[in-house]
Amino acid sequence: MARLSSGLGLTLACGRYDRVGPLVDGRVGVEGIDLNVVPLEPEECFWRMLRFEEFDAAEMSLSSYCMLRARGDERFVGIPAFLSRSFRHSSIYVREGSGIEGPKDLEGRRVGVPEYQMTASVWTRGMLADDHGVDLDSITWRTGGMEQPGRVERQKLVVPDRVRIEPIGPESTLSGALLDGEIDALMAPRIPSAFSRGEGRVRRLFPDYAERETDYYRRTGNFPIMHLVVVRADVARTHPWVAQSLYKALRQAKAVAIEGIHEAPALRYTMPFLLEAWERQIEVFGADPWPYGVDANRAQLETFSRYLTEQGIVEQSAPVEDLFAASTLIDSRI
User: Domain SsuA/THI5-like spans what residues (predicted)?
Assistant: First the structure.
């Protein structure tokens, strides 16, 4: 599809995803909008939007956004296009010799997380509590940068006394702290260098994570949502139609990205076993592995809200419908 004629100039900051690519190359246009897409890594995107509101719309951490709304901060309006989703069974790392063989062994230990409130950590802790009965309040959570020292929480945290959060040293990194014994385990969305170097000193808690993730999805229906899209509230107030236009375009872009992946005569992605992965994905998830919209994701949005309160991040979560622009909650019908 050719890009639509020039309209309102807006900037969207987000990651380089295949499901956004059609908006970048013009295969999908945005009604009434001349869209400028700024590709950024998630951490930088969240930081710049939360701290400085630099963009008209941006990819946003689900946890950070839910925290804002729970506190009555309405600077942004959500769109239920969930650009990032990921299972997190693969993202728990332990040091060899730590004595941690199973999830319950994490109790009473020091566990590193880049930020206590980050979405990946919330989902991982929730899974450990729900599926394995881990007492999260017995754990001391050590926060800081994965590979660079000095990382801090994007938003100020006020947690109950039962939650123990301690930053690592100002010159330390979580990857180094795991090797040095300052922490016993690490939960993180990025693979730590302490593991990727392959020296054998760090291993995954769940080496069979792929099987566990499939089982988790079949039991719970959760393909954990990490990020959504938000629009600055001042933009949405001035141009109320923008949220729906962006939402429609994001849905169309996802459909175009998925269309024909398995039928192309040449592999679109550098994955030799792409067809096998695609067929397994269809068997597990059905026709749409990455659903957008509130209704299709209500159960896991409510689960995530429960985790936020159980883990002391918010006192009371905002209702799911209050998180998103009203125009995105229901589609028009012909």
Answer: 31-147
